[in-house]
Amino acid sequence: QVDVAAMVQLFGYVDVTDTGFIVxxxxxxxxxxxxxxxxxxxxxxxxxxxxxxxxxxxxYCLGAVILVLNCVRSHCFTEAxxxxxxxxxxxxxxxxxxGLAISAVGTLFVISSFLALGxxxxxxxxxxxILMEEKVTSFPFSVLDNPMYWGSTAIYLGWSLMxxxxxxxxxxxxxxxSYTIAVLYEGPFTEEIYRRKxxxxxxx
Length: 204
What we know:
Layout: H1 4-11, H2 19-45, H3 47-52, H4 55-82, H5 93-122, H6 147-162, H7 166-203
């Protein structure tokens, strides 16, 4: 069971009206919304592929924008933590090294996901018509679904623990929620893209 009193005490350290905290929340929520809207628009219109001359060039451009937005998100996340108090009982070596270990595992999932999928597979190439031959089932996809998202969430969780930051923990929860919503929209849509591909192959 969740210790409600402990949760109230923990988040009593967080000023959710702080400008930096609000900016961090908005940046976290904006990123998956942005890439889902743009990628679906591209899938429907092929407008970016036409502008950039090819689906690959358009996908690489979107990927670059997503990377920049992720850097902005991380910066806002860090600044929001710095502007709010630490939890004194957590400001010890064991918390720091626990957070470091969690971040390391998250980084492993993110990097291995990227290596397994490649650039276009990572950055929504499916929506540009750049489809993979078969579903990736190697590590880390053999361990869990959407390892890129949950690896990224783990990095933020570890970063928050390293800073003994209640604000960071709350923002990490926002990251997890935003990714959960993204998965609910992306999963069925991507499956439909590949279902149509298989139907097209069988009809030939």
